[in-house]
Amino acid sequence: MKITRKAFLRIAGGSVLAAGAGKLVKAISDVAPPPAAVSGSKSTAEGGRATTQRWGMAIDFEKCRKGCDDCIRACRLAHNVPRIPDSAHEVKWIWEEPYEKVFPSQRTDYGRQDLAGSQLPVLCNHCADPPCVRVCPTQATWKRDDGIVMMDYHRCIGCRYCMVACPYGSRSFNWFDPRPYIKPLNSQLPTRTKGVVEKCNFCEERLADGLLPACVEACPQKALVFGNLNDKDSAVRQTLRARYAVQRQPELGTEPSVFYLV
Amino acid sequence: MLDKAMAGGRRYWSWMAFLLLLAAAGFVCYCRQLSYGLGITGMSRDVNWGIYVAQFTFFVGIAASAVMVVLPYYLHDVKQFGKITILGEFLAIAAVIMCMLFIFVDMGQPLRVFNVLFYPTLHSMMFWDMLSLGGYLLLNAVISSVMLDCEFKHVPPPRWLRPVVLFSIPWAISIHTVTAFLYNGLPGRSLWFTAILAPRFLASAFASGPALLILLCLLLRRLTSFDAGNEVIRRLGIIVAYAMTVNVFFLLLELFTALYSHVPDHGEAFKYLFVGLEGKRPLAPYMWLSVGMAGAALVALLVPSFRKNQRVLALASVFVFVSLWLEKGMGLIVAGFVPSPLGAVTTYAPTGPELGIVLGVWAIGALVLTVFYKVTISIREAS
Q1: Does A107 contact chain B (CB < 8 Å)?
Q2: ipTM of the predicted structure?
Protein backbone atom coordinates (compact mmCIF):
# COMPACT_ATOMS: atom_id res chain seq x y z
CA MET A 1 0.00 0.00 0.00
CA LYS A 2 1.31 3.36 -0.94
CA ILE A 3 1.00 5.98 1.76
CA THR A 4 0.56 9.46 0.36
CA ARG A 5 1.72 12.45 2.29
CA LYS A 6 -1.88 13.43 2.98
CA ALA A 7 -2.75 9.97 4.31
CA PHE A 8 0.32 10.01 6.49
CA LEU A 9 -0.63 13.38 7.97
CA ARG A 10 -4.15 12.10 8.59
CA ILE A 11 -2.90 9.03 10.43
CA ALA A 12 -0.31 10.97 12.38
CA GLY A 13 -2.80 13.65 13.40
CA GLY A 14 -5.34 11.01 14.36
CA SER A 15 -2.91 9.14 16.58
CA VAL A 16 -1.85 12.30 18.38
CA LEU A 17 -5.50 13.13 19.02
CA ALA A 18 -6.27 9.63 20.21
CA ALA A 19 -3.32 9.67 22.59
CA GLY A 20 -4.37 13.06 23.93
CA ALA A 21 -7.97 11.95 24.36
CA GLY A 22 -6.88 8.82 26.22
CA LYS A 23 -4.84 10.86 28.61
CA LEU A 24 -7.75 13.22 29.18
CA VAL A 25 -10.26 10.44 29.83
CA LYS A 26 -7.90 8.84 32.32
CA ALA A 27 -7.35 12.17 34.03
CA ILE A 28 -11.07 12.86 34.35
CA SER A 29 -11.85 9.38 35.63
CA ASP A 30 -9.46 9.59 38.55
CA VAL A 31 -10.01 13.29 39.24
CA ALA A 32 -6.60 14.25 40.51
CA PRO A 33 -6.59 14.21 44.30
CA PRO A 34 -5.55 17.47 45.89
CA PRO A 35 -1.84 17.54 46.62
CA ALA A 36 -1.07 15.90 49.92
CA ALA A 37 -0.69 18.28 52.81
CA VAL A 38 2.86 19.46 53.02
CA SER A 39 2.85 19.20 56.76
CA GLY A 40 1.85 15.76 57.85
CA SER A 41 1.88 16.58 61.50
CA LYS A 42 -1.36 17.75 63.00
CA SER A 43 0.30 18.50 66.28
CA THR A 44 1.02 22.02 66.96
CA ALA A 45 0.90 25.06 69.05
CA GLU A 46 -2.52 24.06 70.37
CA GLY A 47 -1.93 20.43 71.16
CA GLY A 48 -4.13 17.60 70.01
CA ARG A 49 -7.37 18.30 71.81
CA ALA A 50 -9.54 18.72 68.73
CA THR A 51 -9.89 15.94 66.21
CA THR A 52 -9.95 18.32 63.28
CA GLN A 53 -8.01 21.44 62.69
CA ARG A 54 -8.88 24.77 61.22
CA TRP A 55 -6.30 27.43 61.75
CA GLY A 56 -7.67 30.89 62.39
CA MET A 57 -6.70 34.32 63.61
CA ALA A 58 -8.34 37.08 65.58
CA ILE A 59 -7.03 40.62 65.12
CA ASP A 60 -7.68 43.00 68.01
CA PHE A 61 -7.56 46.43 66.52
CA GLU A 62 -7.99 48.11 69.88
CA LYS A 63 -4.55 46.81 70.75
CA CYS A 64 -2.96 47.44 67.35
CA ARG A 65 -0.64 50.43 67.79
CA LYS A 66 -0.53 53.23 65.23
CA GLY A 67 2.70 53.38 63.29
CA CYS A 68 3.88 49.93 64.40
CA ASP A 69 4.64 47.56 61.52
CA ASP A 70 6.45 44.80 63.39
CA CYS A 71 4.10 42.11 62.04
CA ILE A 72 4.69 43.23 58.45
CA ARG A 73 8.46 43.33 58.84
CA ALA A 74 8.54 39.94 60.56
CA CYS A 75 6.52 38.48 57.68
CA ARG A 76 8.87 39.91 55.06
CA LEU A 77 11.84 38.38 56.83
CA ALA A 78 10.13 35.04 57.36
CA HIS A 79 9.14 34.63 53.71
CA ASN A 80 11.53 36.69 51.61
CA VAL A 81 8.68 39.01 50.64
CA PRO A 82 10.04 41.67 48.26
CA ARG A 83 9.57 45.40 48.84
CA ILE A 84 8.57 46.80 45.49
CA PRO A 85 8.26 50.59 45.56
CA ASP A 86 5.82 50.77 42.64
CA SER A 87 2.35 50.27 44.17
CA ALA A 88 0.94 48.76 40.95
CA HIS A 89 3.32 45.80 41.19
CA GLU A 90 3.65 45.35 44.95
CA VAL A 91 3.84 41.91 46.53
CA LYS A 92 2.09 41.82 49.92
CA TRP A 93 1.39 39.02 52.40
CA ILE A 94 0.27 41.07 55.40
CA TRP A 95 -0.15 44.82 55.14
CA GLU A 96 -2.21 47.75 56.38
CA GLU A 97 -5.38 49.22 54.92
CA PRO A 98 -7.71 51.90 56.29
CA TYR A 99 -10.76 50.68 58.23
CA GLU A 100 -13.28 51.87 55.64
CA LYS A 101 -11.51 49.96 52.86
CA VAL A 102 -11.38 46.76 54.91
CA PHE A 103 -15.05 47.02 55.91
CA PRO A 104 -16.59 48.95 53.02
CA SER A 105 -20.16 48.27 54.16
CA GLN A 106 -19.56 49.71 57.64
CA ARG A 107 -20.17 53.44 57.36
CA THR A 108 -18.44 55.60 59.95
CA ASP A 109 -20.33 58.85 59.31
CA TYR A 110 -22.00 58.91 62.72
CA GLY A 111 -20.19 56.12 64.56
CA ARG A 112 -16.84 56.05 66.27
CA GLN A 113 -14.75 58.70 64.60
CA ASP A 114 -11.50 57.07 65.72
CA LEU A 115 -12.17 54.10 63.43
CA ALA A 116 -12.26 56.22 60.28
CA GLY A 117 -8.79 56.31 58.84
CA SER A 118 -7.32 53.90 61.36
CA GLN A 119 -5.12 51.27 59.78
CA LEU A 120 -5.81 47.55 60.12
CA PRO A 121 -3.63 44.61 59.17
CA VAL A 122 -5.05 42.55 56.30
CA LEU A 123 -3.86 39.19 54.98
CA CYS A 124 -5.20 36.09 53.26
CA ASN A 125 -8.40 35.06 55.05
CA HIS A 126 -7.78 31.33 54.52
CA CYS A 127 -11.47 31.00 53.70
CA ALA A 128 -13.34 27.79 54.47
CA ASP A 129 -14.87 28.06 50.98
CA PRO A 130 -12.16 29.84 49.00
CA PRO A 131 -13.15 31.14 45.53
CA CYS A 132 -9.47 31.22 44.51
CA VAL A 133 -9.23 27.44 44.95
CA ARG A 134 -12.47 26.95 43.04
CA VAL A 135 -11.26 28.81 39.96
CA CYS A 136 -7.60 27.69 39.76
CA PRO A 137 -7.27 25.59 36.58
CA THR A 138 -4.29 23.55 37.81
CA GLN A 139 -4.94 23.11 41.56
CA ALA A 140 -1.80 25.16 42.12
CA THR A 141 -3.75 26.71 44.95
CA TRP A 142 -5.64 24.35 47.23
CA LYS A 143 -7.05 24.10 50.73
CA ARG A 144 -5.36 21.82 53.22
CA ASP A 145 -7.28 19.74 55.75
CA ASP A 146 -6.19 22.20 58.44
CA GLY A 147 -7.83 25.07 56.56
CA ILE A 148 -4.70 26.70 55.18
CA VAL A 149 -5.05 27.85 51.58
CA MET A 150 -1.74 26.92 49.99
CA MET A 151 0.14 27.86 46.83
CA ASP A 152 2.32 25.61 44.69
CA TYR A 153 4.66 28.09 43.01
CA HIS A 154 5.98 25.38 40.74
CA ARG A 155 2.61 24.45 39.33
CA CYS A 156 1.13 27.96 39.00
CA ILE A 157 0.78 28.98 35.33
CA GLY A 158 0.35 32.66 36.16
CA CYS A 159 -3.16 33.09 34.74
CA ARG A 160 -4.13 35.27 37.75
CA TYR A 161 -7.65 33.84 37.82
CA CYS A 162 -7.26 33.36 41.61
CA MET A 163 -6.53 37.08 42.00
CA VAL A 164 -9.63 37.91 39.99
CA ALA A 165 -11.69 35.55 42.15
CA CYS A 166 -10.36 36.70 45.54
CA PRO A 167 -12.82 39.27 46.91
CA TYR A 168 -10.22 40.54 49.40
CA GLY A 169 -7.31 41.50 47.15
CA SER A 170 -5.10 39.19 49.21
CA ARG A 171 -3.10 37.75 46.36
CA SER A 172 -0.04 39.20 44.64
CA PHE A 173 1.44 38.44 41.25
CA ASN A 174 5.12 38.62 40.46
CA TRP A 175 5.00 41.02 37.52
CA PHE A 176 8.79 40.68 37.20
CA ASP A 177 11.68 38.98 39.00
CA PRO A 178 11.14 39.84 42.69
CA ARG A 179 14.65 38.90 43.86
CA PRO A 180 16.35 42.27 43.41
CA TYR A 181 13.72 43.71 45.76
CA ILE A 182 14.17 41.22 48.62
CA LYS A 183 16.25 43.00 51.25
CA PRO A 184 17.72 41.42 53.23
CA LEU A 185 17.59 38.19 51.24
CA ASN A 186 17.58 35.08 53.43
CA SER A 187 19.22 32.40 51.33
CA GLN A 188 17.90 29.71 53.69
CA LEU A 189 14.35 30.48 52.61
CA PRO A 190 12.70 30.05 49.22
CA THR A 191 12.03 32.96 46.88
CA ARG A 192 9.54 33.16 44.05
CA THR A 193 10.07 33.56 40.35
CA LYS A 194 8.42 36.03 37.99
CA GLY A 195 5.03 35.04 36.63
CA VAL A 196 3.53 33.27 39.64
CA VAL A 197 1.02 34.29 42.31
CA GLU A 198 1.91 34.33 46.00
CA LYS A 199 0.24 35.15 49.30
CA CYS A 200 0.20 34.52 53.05
CA ASN A 201 0.47 30.84 54.02
CA PHE A 202 -0.22 31.28 57.77
CA CYS A 203 3.47 30.30 58.20
CA GLU A 204 2.64 26.64 57.62
CA GLU A 205 6.33 25.74 57.87
CA ARG A 206 6.50 27.31 61.36
CA LEU A 207 3.25 25.61 62.42
CA ALA A 208 4.78 22.28 61.41
CA ASP A 209 7.56 23.02 63.92
CA GLY A 210 5.07 23.93 66.62
CA LEU A 211 5.73 27.67 66.28
CA LEU A 212 3.22 30.48 65.91
CA PRO A 213 3.11 32.49 62.66
CA ALA A 214 5.86 35.11 62.44
CA CYS A 215 3.44 38.06 62.54
CA VAL A 216 1.67 36.73 65.65
CA GLU A 217 4.98 36.19 67.42
CA ALA A 218 6.32 39.61 66.42
CA CYS A 219 3.36 41.70 67.65
CA PRO A 220 4.50 43.56 70.77
CA GLN A 221 0.87 44.23 71.78
CA LYS A 222 -0.29 40.63 71.39
CA ALA A 223 -2.98 41.99 69.08
CA LEU A 224 -2.94 38.89 66.88
CA VAL A 225 -4.42 35.75 68.45
CA PHE A 226 -3.85 32.51 66.56
CA GLY A 227 -5.15 28.99 67.05
CA ASN A 228 -7.40 26.12 66.09
CA LEU A 229 -10.94 27.31 65.39
CA ASN A 230 -12.24 23.76 65.82
CA ASP A 231 -10.91 23.52 69.38
CA LYS A 232 -13.29 25.27 71.77
CA ASP A 233 -10.54 25.74 74.34
CA SER A 234 -8.05 27.33 71.98
CA ALA A 235 -6.88 30.89 72.60
CA VAL A 236 -8.57 32.13 69.45
CA ARG A 237 -11.90 30.52 70.38
CA GLN A 238 -11.74 31.96 73.90
CA THR A 239 -11.10 35.39 72.45
CA LEU A 240 -13.94 35.07 69.95
CA ARG A 241 -16.31 33.98 72.74
CA ALA A 242 -15.43 36.96 74.86
CA ARG A 243 -15.52 39.70 72.24
CA TYR A 244 -17.71 40.75 69.33
CA ALA A 245 -15.90 39.84 66.14
CA VAL A 246 -16.51 40.49 62.45
CA GLN A 247 -15.19 38.92 59.26
CA ARG A 248 -14.53 40.73 55.99
CA GLN A 249 -17.54 40.51 53.65
CA PRO A 250 -19.16 37.46 55.27
CA GLU A 251 -22.14 37.93 52.91
CA LEU A 252 -20.06 36.45 50.10
CA GLY A 253 -20.13 33.04 51.76
CA THR A 254 -16.38 32.54 51.77
CA GLU A 255 -16.24 32.00 55.57
CA PRO A 256 -12.95 33.74 56.36
CA SER A 257 -10.77 32.28 59.13
CA VAL A 258 -9.51 35.74 60.05
CA PHE A 259 -11.66 37.71 62.50
CA TYR A 260 -11.50 41.36 63.58
CA LEU A 261 -12.36 42.15 67.21
CA VAL A 262 -14.35 45.31 67.71
CA MET B 1 -4.88 22.18 -1.46
CA LEU B 2 -2.74 24.55 0.57
CA ASP B 3 -0.56 25.06 -2.51
CA LYS B 4 -3.32 27.37 -3.77
CA ALA B 5 -2.27 29.82 -1.06
CA MET B 6 1.18 29.91 -2.62
CA ALA B 7 0.00 31.35 -5.93
CA GLY B 8 -1.08 34.93 -5.86
CA GLY B 9 -0.57 38.32 -7.38
CA ARG B 10 1.47 41.25 -6.18
CA ARG B 11 -1.38 42.62 -4.06
CA TYR B 12 -1.83 39.26 -2.31
CA TRP B 13 1.85 38.94 -1.49
CA SER B 14 2.17 42.54 -0.28
CA TRP B 15 -0.73 41.93 2.09
CA MET B 16 0.85 38.69 3.32
CA ALA B 17 4.22 40.40 3.80
CA PHE B 18 2.56 43.21 5.74
CA LEU B 19 0.86 40.72 8.06
CA LEU B 20 4.05 38.73 8.54
CA LEU B 21 5.87 41.92 9.42
CA LEU B 22 3.23 42.80 12.04
CA ALA B 23 3.34 39.28 13.44
CA ALA B 24 7.14 39.48 13.64
CA ALA B 25 6.94 42.82 15.46
CA GLY B 26 4.44 41.26 17.88
CA PHE B 27 6.79 38.36 18.41
CA VAL B 28 9.65 40.73 19.28
CA CYS B 29 7.38 42.45 21.83
CA TYR B 30 6.42 39.06 23.21
CA CYS B 31 10.06 38.06 23.63
CA ARG B 32 10.58 41.22 25.66
CA GLN B 33 7.56 40.37 27.80
CA LEU B 34 8.82 36.83 28.24
CA SER B 35 12.19 37.98 29.51
CA TYR B 36 10.99 40.85 31.73
CA GLY B 37 7.62 39.55 32.89
CA LEU B 38 4.04 40.78 32.58
CA GLY B 39 5.12 43.98 34.37
CA ILE B 40 5.83 45.24 30.87
CA THR B 41 2.06 45.58 30.37
CA GLY B 42 -0.33 48.10 31.92
CA MET B 43 -1.83 45.46 34.22
CA SER B 44 -1.37 45.74 37.96
CA ARG B 45 -2.19 44.39 41.40
CA ASP B 46 -5.66 45.87 41.06
CA VAL B 47 -6.37 45.41 37.35
CA ASN B 48 -5.28 41.78 36.97
CA TRP B 49 -6.50 41.28 33.43
CA GLY B 50 -6.26 43.75 30.57
CA ILE B 51 -6.54 43.93 26.82
CA TYR B 52 -5.33 40.35 26.24
CA VAL B 53 -8.21 38.76 28.13
CA ALA B 54 -10.65 41.40 26.88
CA GLN B 55 -9.69 40.67 23.26
CA PHE B 56 -9.94 36.96 23.99
CA THR B 57 -13.52 37.50 25.15
CA PHE B 58 -14.41 39.53 22.06
CA PHE B 59 -12.97 36.96 19.65
CA VAL B 60 -14.73 34.05 21.34
CA GLY B 61 -17.82 35.93 20.20
CA ILE B 62 -16.55 36.22 16.62
CA ALA B 63 -15.84 32.48 16.68
CA ALA B 64 -19.28 31.61 18.01
CA SER B 65 -21.00 33.80 15.43
CA ALA B 66 -20.24 31.32 12.62
CA VAL B 67 -23.39 29.62 13.84
CA MET B 68 -25.38 32.56 12.44
CA VAL B 69 -24.62 31.40 8.88
CA VAL B 70 -24.56 27.67 9.62
CA LEU B 71 -27.90 27.59 11.43
CA PRO B 72 -30.00 29.30 8.75
CA TYR B 73 -28.49 27.09 6.05
CA TYR B 74 -28.84 23.75 7.79
CA LEU B 75 -31.96 24.27 9.91
CA HIS B 76 -33.96 26.76 7.85
CA ASP B 77 -32.78 25.79 4.40
CA VAL B 78 -31.64 29.30 3.49
CA LYS B 79 -29.96 28.15 0.29
CA GLN B 80 -28.06 31.37 -0.38
CA PHE B 81 -25.98 30.85 2.76
CA GLY B 82 -24.55 27.65 1.27
CA LYS B 83 -21.98 29.82 -0.46
CA ILE B 84 -20.68 31.40 2.72
CA THR B 85 -21.01 28.76 5.46
CA ILE B 86 -17.41 27.83 4.81
CA LEU B 87 -16.38 31.50 5.12
CA GLY B 88 -18.09 31.59 8.51
CA GLU B 89 -16.35 28.42 9.62
CA PHE B 90 -12.94 29.64 8.52
CA LEU B 91 -13.59 32.90 10.35
CA ALA B 92 -14.40 30.82 13.44
CA ILE B 93 -11.13 28.89 13.10
CA ALA B 94 -9.08 32.07 12.77
CA ALA B 95 -10.90 33.61 15.75
CA VAL B 96 -10.36 30.56 17.98
CA ILE B 97 -6.66 30.57 17.12
CA MET B 98 -6.54 34.23 18.13
CA CYS B 99 -8.35 33.42 21.40
CA MET B 100 -5.81 30.74 22.24
CA LEU B 101 -2.95 33.11 21.48
CA PHE B 102 -4.48 35.87 23.62
CA ILE B 103 -4.70 33.49 26.58
CA PHE B 104 -1.19 32.21 25.96
CA VAL B 105 0.37 35.69 25.92
CA ASP B 106 -1.48 36.51 29.14
CA MET B 107 0.17 33.70 31.09
CA GLY B 108 2.91 34.44 33.59
CA GLN B 109 4.45 30.99 33.10
CA PRO B 110 3.57 30.06 29.50
CA LEU B 111 5.85 27.02 29.46
CA ARG B 112 3.57 25.45 32.06
CA VAL B 113 0.49 25.73 29.83
CA PHE B 114 0.02 21.96 29.74
CA ASN B 115 -0.48 21.89 33.52
CA VAL B 116 -4.10 22.61 32.63
CA LEU B 117 -4.20 19.16 30.97
CA PHE B 118 -1.91 17.37 33.43
CA TYR B 119 -4.07 18.44 36.38
CA PRO B 120 -7.56 18.71 34.89
CA THR B 121 -9.68 20.62 37.37
CA LEU B 122 -13.39 20.12 36.88
CA HIS B 123 -14.38 22.93 39.24
CA SER B 124 -12.42 25.50 37.24
CA MET B 125 -14.32 27.23 34.44
CA MET B 126 -11.01 27.84 32.70
CA PHE B 127 -10.64 24.09 32.19
CA TRP B 128 -14.10 23.88 30.62
CA ASP B 129 -13.41 26.92 28.48
CA MET B 130 -10.29 25.25 27.14
CA LEU B 131 -12.26 22.08 26.34
CA SER B 132 -15.08 23.94 24.63
CA LEU B 133 -12.75 26.14 22.57
CA GLY B 134 -10.53 23.20 21.62
CA GLY B 135 -13.56 21.12 20.65
CA TYR B 136 -14.98 23.98 18.61
CA LEU B 137 -11.71 24.39 16.74
CA LEU B 138 -11.67 20.67 15.97
CA LEU B 139 -15.31 20.62 14.82
CA ASN B 140 -14.83 23.56 12.49
CA ALA B 141 -11.53 22.21 11.17
CA VAL B 142 -13.16 18.89 10.29
CA ILE B 143 -16.29 20.43 8.79
CA SER B 144 -14.55 23.05 6.68
CA SER B 145 -11.75 20.80 5.43
CA VAL B 146 -14.18 18.05 4.37
CA MET B 147 -16.47 20.59 2.68
CA LEU B 148 -13.60 22.16 0.83
CA ASP B 149 -12.25 18.78 -0.20
CA CYS B 150 -15.66 17.88 -1.63
CA GLU B 151 -15.89 21.16 -3.52
CA PHE B 152 -12.43 20.46 -4.91
CA LYS B 153 -13.43 17.00 -6.08
CA HIS B 154 -16.91 18.05 -7.26
CA VAL B 155 -18.64 15.52 -5.02
CA PRO B 156 -21.46 16.12 -2.54
CA PRO B 157 -20.36 16.21 1.14
CA PRO B 158 -20.50 12.82 2.90
CA ARG B 159 -23.67 12.00 4.83
CA TRP B 160 -21.94 11.84 8.19
CA LEU B 161 -21.00 15.50 7.93
CA ARG B 162 -24.52 16.82 8.50
CA PRO B 163 -24.86 15.50 12.09
CA VAL B 164 -21.40 16.91 12.83
CA VAL B 165 -22.50 20.31 11.54
CA LEU B 166 -25.71 20.16 13.59
CA PHE B 167 -23.65 19.23 16.64
CA SER B 168 -21.47 22.29 16.08
CA ILE B 169 -24.49 24.59 16.51
CA PRO B 170 -25.09 24.06 20.25
CA TRP B 171 -21.32 23.76 20.67
CA ALA B 172 -20.94 27.31 19.33
CA ILE B 173 -23.45 28.53 21.91
CA SER B 174 -21.50 26.68 24.58
CA ILE B 175 -18.17 28.36 23.89
CA HIS B 176 -19.55 31.79 24.64
CA THR B 177 -21.65 30.59 27.55
CA VAL B 178 -18.66 29.01 29.25
CA THR B 179 -16.63 32.15 28.52
CA ALA B 180 -19.30 34.16 30.36
CA PHE B 181 -19.08 31.64 33.22
CA LEU B 182 -15.41 32.60 33.61
CA TYR B 183 -16.62 35.95 34.86
CA ASN B 184 -20.12 35.72 36.26
CA GLY B 185 -19.56 33.20 39.02
CA LEU B 186 -17.10 35.30 41.00
CA PRO B 187 -18.10 36.78 44.36
CA GLY B 188 -17.17 40.43 44.70
CA ARG B 189 -16.96 41.29 40.98
CA SER B 190 -20.29 43.05 40.72
CA LEU B 191 -20.07 44.21 37.11
CA TRP B 192 -19.87 40.61 35.91
CA PHE B 193 -22.04 39.06 38.63
CA THR B 194 -25.12 38.89 36.45
CA ALA B 195 -26.96 35.89 35.04
CA ILE B 196 -27.56 37.85 31.84
CA LEU B 197 -23.85 37.93 30.99
CA ALA B 198 -23.95 34.83 28.77
CA PRO B 199 -27.00 36.04 26.79
CA ARG B 200 -25.33 39.45 26.47
CA PHE B 201 -22.17 37.82 25.18
CA LEU B 202 -24.17 35.83 22.64
CA ALA B 203 -26.16 38.85 21.47
CA SER B 204 -23.04 40.95 20.98
CA ALA B 205 -21.34 38.00 19.27
CA PHE B 206 -24.20 37.52 16.82
CA ALA B 207 -24.05 41.23 15.98
CA SER B 208 -20.28 41.70 15.69
CA GLY B 209 -19.53 38.41 13.87
CA PRO B 210 -22.07 38.76 11.04
CA ALA B 211 -21.15 42.48 10.78
CA LEU B 212 -17.58 41.40 10.12
CA LEU B 213 -18.82 38.81 7.62
CA ILE B 214 -20.75 41.49 5.72
CA LEU B 215 -17.57 43.55 5.48
CA LEU B 216 -15.56 40.51 4.41
CA CYS B 217 -18.12 39.63 1.72
CA LEU B 218 -18.06 43.19 0.36
CA LEU B 219 -14.26 43.16 0.44
CA LEU B 220 -14.06 39.80 -1.34
CA ARG B 221 -16.47 41.03 -4.01
CA ARG B 222 -14.27 44.05 -4.66
CA LEU B 223 -10.91 42.27 -4.53
CA THR B 224 -11.63 38.82 -5.88
CA SER B 225 -13.91 36.91 -8.20
CA PHE B 226 -16.00 35.72 -5.26
CA ASP B 227 -19.43 37.29 -4.93
CA ALA B 228 -21.61 36.20 -2.02
CA GLY B 229 -24.56 37.89 -3.67
CA ASN B 230 -26.83 40.72 -2.57
CA GLU B 231 -29.35 38.37 -0.99
CA VAL B 232 -26.71 36.95 1.40
CA ILE B 233 -25.62 40.44 2.40
CA ARG B 234 -29.23 41.54 2.88
CA ARG B 235 -29.97 38.57 5.13
CA LEU B 236 -26.78 39.08 7.15
CA GLY B 237 -27.88 42.69 7.62
CA ILE B 238 -31.16 41.51 9.13
CA ILE B 239 -29.30 39.19 11.51
CA VAL B 240 -27.05 42.06 12.65
CA ALA B 241 -30.10 44.30 13.11
CA TYR B 242 -31.86 41.79 15.38
CA ALA B 243 -28.76 40.86 17.37
CA MET B 244 -27.65 44.45 17.89
CA THR B 245 -31.12 45.44 19.06
CA VAL B 246 -31.18 42.59 21.56
CA ASN B 247 -27.66 43.47 22.69
CA VAL B 248 -28.53 47.10 23.39
CA PHE B 249 -31.73 45.99 25.13
CA PHE B 250 -29.72 43.67 27.40
CA LEU B 251 -27.28 46.46 28.25
CA LEU B 252 -30.17 48.76 29.19
CA LEU B 253 -31.57 46.01 31.44
CA GLU B 254 -28.21 45.83 33.23
CA LEU B 255 -28.11 49.60 33.64
CA PHE B 256 -31.62 49.70 35.09
CA THR B 257 -30.90 47.09 37.78
CA ALA B 258 -27.54 48.61 38.64
CA LEU B 259 -28.61 52.24 38.74
CA TYR B 260 -32.23 52.14 39.90
CA SER B 261 -31.45 49.87 42.87
CA HIS B 262 -28.83 52.35 44.11
CA VAL B 263 -26.81 49.39 45.42
CA PRO B 264 -23.33 50.95 45.39
CA ASP B 265 -21.44 47.81 44.32
CA HIS B 266 -23.60 47.36 41.26
CA GLY B 267 -23.58 50.94 40.09
CA GLU B 268 -19.94 51.85 40.67
CA ALA B 269 -18.39 49.96 37.76
CA PHE B 270 -20.98 51.42 35.35
CA LYS B 271 -20.29 54.89 36.75
CA TYR B 272 -16.58 54.27 36.24
CA LEU B 273 -17.25 53.26 32.65
CA PHE B 274 -19.37 56.24 31.67
CA VAL B 275 -18.65 59.16 34.02
CA GLY B 276 -15.65 58.06 36.04
CA LEU B 277 -14.95 57.50 39.74
CA GLU B 278 -12.83 59.71 41.98
CA GLY B 279 -12.22 61.99 39.02
CA LYS B 280 -10.71 59.18 36.96
CA ARG B 281 -12.53 58.53 33.73
CA PRO B 282 -10.06 56.89 31.32
CA LEU B 283 -12.67 54.67 29.68
CA ALA B 284 -15.48 57.22 29.39
CA PRO B 285 -14.49 58.70 25.96
CA TYR B 286 -14.33 55.20 24.46
CA MET B 287 -17.57 54.11 26.08
CA TRP B 288 -19.43 57.17 24.80
CA LEU B 289 -17.95 56.58 21.38
CA SER B 290 -19.23 53.01 21.63
CA VAL B 291 -22.70 54.23 22.65
CA GLY B 292 -22.78 56.79 19.83
CA MET B 293 -21.75 54.23 17.24
CA ALA B 294 -24.26 51.70 18.56
CA GLY B 295 -27.04 54.29 18.36
CA ALA B 296 -26.14 55.35 14.83
CA ALA B 297 -25.81 51.72 13.73
CA LEU B 298 -29.23 50.88 15.19
CA VAL B 299 -30.88 53.69 13.23
CA ALA B 300 -29.16 52.54 10.04
CA LEU B 301 -30.06 48.90 10.64
CA LEU B 302 -33.67 49.33 11.76
CA VAL B 303 -34.84 51.65 8.98
CA PRO B 304 -35.34 49.29 6.01
CA SER B 305 -34.46 51.85 3.31
CA PHE B 306 -31.12 52.57 5.04
CA ARG B 307 -30.32 48.91 5.59
CA LYS B 308 -31.00 48.04 1.96
CA ASN B 309 -28.40 50.57 0.83
CA GLN B 310 -25.17 48.57 0.85
CA ARG B 311 -22.98 51.59 1.54
CA VAL B 312 -25.04 52.43 4.61
CA LEU B 313 -25.07 48.78 5.64
CA ALA B 314 -21.28 48.63 5.34
CA LEU B 315 -20.90 51.73 7.49
CA ALA B 316 -23.38 50.34 10.03
CA SER B 317 -21.38 47.09 10.13
CA VAL B 318 -18.18 49.02 10.84
CA PHE B 319 -19.98 50.92 13.61
CA VAL B 320 -21.38 47.71 15.15
CA PHE B 321 -17.99 46.04 15.08
CA VAL B 322 -16.06 48.97 16.55
CA SER B 323 -18.75 49.75 19.12
CA LEU B 324 -18.79 46.19 20.44
CA TRP B 325 -15.01 45.93 20.21
CA LEU B 326 -14.73 48.91 22.56
CA GLU B 327 -17.47 47.75 24.90
CA LYS B 328 -16.62 44.06 25.14
CA GLY B 329 -13.01 43.97 23.95
CA MET B 330 -11.93 46.50 26.55
CA GLY B 331 -14.52 48.22 28.80
CA LEU B 332 -16.38 45.25 30.22
CA ILE B 333 -13.26 43.40 31.37
CA VAL B 334 -11.19 46.35 32.61
CA ALA B 335 -14.08 48.00 34.49
CA GLY B 336 -14.77 44.71 36.27
CA PHE B 337 -11.67 45.49 38.32
CA VAL B 338 -12.81 48.96 39.38
CA PRO B 339 -13.14 49.61 42.19
CA SER B 340 -10.75 46.93 43.45
CA PRO B 341 -11.69 44.67 46.38
CA LEU B 342 -10.03 47.24 48.62
CA GLY B 343 -11.81 50.16 46.99
CA ALA B 344 -8.94 51.41 44.83
CA VAL B 345 -9.74 53.12 41.53
CA THR B 346 -6.72 52.10 39.47
CA THR B 347 -6.34 53.23 35.89
CA TYR B 348 -5.31 50.67 33.31
CA ALA B 349 -3.89 51.60 29.93
CA PRO B 350 -2.17 49.11 27.63
CA THR B 351 1.52 49.84 27.06
CA GLY B 352 3.36 49.95 23.73
CA PRO B 353 4.71 46.39 23.86
CA GLU B 354 1.29 45.16 25.03
CA LEU B 355 -0.39 46.76 22.00
CA GLY B 356 2.38 45.35 19.80
CA ILE B 357 1.54 41.85 21.00
CA VAL B 358 -2.19 42.46 20.42
CA LEU B 359 -1.47 43.66 16.87
CA GLY B 360 0.72 40.60 16.32
CA VAL B 361 -2.11 38.28 17.33
CA TRP B 362 -4.48 40.16 15.05
CA ALA B 363 -2.00 39.78 12.21
CA ILE B 364 -1.76 36.04 12.77
CA GLY B 365 -5.56 35.81 12.76
CA ALA B 366 -5.75 37.80 9.54
CA LEU B 367 -3.00 35.66 8.03
CA VAL B 368 -4.84 32.42 8.81
CA LEU B 369 -8.07 33.88 7.45
CA THR B 370 -6.39 35.14 4.27
CA VAL B 371 -4.84 31.75 3.52
CA PHE B 372 -8.15 29.91 4.08
CA TYR B 373 -10.15 32.37 1.97
CA LYS B 374 -7.52 32.32 -0.75
CA VAL B 375 -7.64 28.52 -0.98
CA THR B 376 -11.46 28.51 -0.98
CA ILE B 377 -11.75 31.14 -3.68
CA SER B 378 -9.06 29.51 -5.84
CA ILE B 379 -10.92 26.20 -5.69
CA ARG B 380 -14.18 27.91 -6.62
CA GLU B 381 -12.52 29.78 -9.46
CA ALA B 382 -11.16 26.51 -10.85
CA SER B 383 -14.56 24.82 -10.89
Answers
A1: no
A2: 0.94
